[in-house]
Amino acid sequence: MILTSKLPQVGTSIFTVMSQLAQQYGAINLSQGFPDFNCPPELTELVSDYLRQGFNQYAPMAGVLKLREQISSKTEKLYGFAPDPDTEITITSGATEALYAALAAILRPGDEVIILEPAYDSYVPAILLNGGQPVFVPLQVPSFAINWQLVKEAITSRTRAILLNSPHNPSGAVLSASDLLNLAELVTDTNILIISDEVYEHMVFDGQPHLSLLTKPELAARSFVISSFGKTYHATGWKVAYCVAPAALTIEFRKVHQYLTFSTVTPIQYAIADYLDNQEHYLTLPAFYQAKRDLFHQLLQSSRFTLTPSAGTYFQLVSYENITQERDQAFARRLTTEVGVAAIPISVFYHQQTDHGLLRFCFAKNEDTLRAAAEKLNRL
Q1: Is a pLDDT exceeding 80 seen at residue 198?
Q2: Half-sphere exposure at residue 300, Cβ-oriented, CA atoms within 13 angstroms
Q3: Which residues does the UniProt record annotate as the domain Aminotransferase class I/classII large (predicted)?
Q4: What's 14-32+284-377's CATH class?
Q5: If you classify domain 58-278 with CATH, what class do you get?
Q6: Where are the domains positioned within the chain?
Q7: Is 12 a residue whose pLDDT tops 80?
Q8: pLDDT by residue (tens digit) across 175-195?
Q9: What are the backbone angles phi and psi of residue 349, rounded to the nearest 5°?
Q10: How far out from the chain centre does Cα 83 lie?
Q11: Contacts of 49 (CB under 8 A, 6+ apart)
């Protein structure tokens, strides 16, 4: 049997590779983006309660109504916009599904999607599988700010969408007010749609707000905005996320969603709906993760790595230019197998494997884990 691959360049993801390597060599895993601490015990108890009560059958395709209502209320409090729970909010089985459903809903063969690189690894395959063409625009290194002139030059008559990510994985950069103004100016009087990956919305540091696209009506009117409960509640394995989009876009989004997963795990939806009454959790999350960021930064002060503290997410980029001139993928592998700390090389987030000599560490870890990793890194 001969099967021609739709994704001939795609292999096992770097996250899987590095996590397996870390396990094989007993390294501290700061590569894949997941916490090594548990979600709030009150939330897990709520899940258990709903399991025992028998909430174990299919949820509504669009998601449990109470959860969608809670999301609408939360969105209004945070961003001044109250999406309609019935027609503008859809619960999905993770943000990756939401991204895929949005792209599948809007793309036709030959349509172009502008992607800002470095970019999360699921974006390009989702575009290609739906007949689209990625158009790459590099972010400015080392700030990873957007050059809006380059974005403007990348727009053609075939541009269907711009895919944004803020706070940004892997760099930790965040959108500014001027970024939203530039974006709004670019798409005015066009049919360009926006897909905004905002799964780290509650991890913006140094007193800065998260500037969701939902804060600007002219952008919200043409956007799929995607958020993640897995990131917010330290439960990435639950794969529960949601998409906010105008009613007309949500109709098409749900047509795809119902044939991808149909619905998302029922008892967890009810539990999250209840737990959203606890606003303190997500309102204090920036301070919670900033403390971990600051600790990691402090612990590496005496190392030969150099870094600028991340503005958002739970990732930190570091430069190793004072240590070696190796390519980042080779150094990341050696760091895992010889030093005992696993990281992600940034070149894997570029379609041409552009190497800036940077690694990404995840600091969503217990203090003891960060101290143990730093002790090893300081020996270099």
Answers
A1: yes
A2: 22
A3: 28-377
A4: alpha beta
A5: alpha beta
A6: 14-32+284-377, 58-278
A7: no
A8: 999 999 999 999 999 999 999
A9: -90, 5
A10: 21
A11: 271
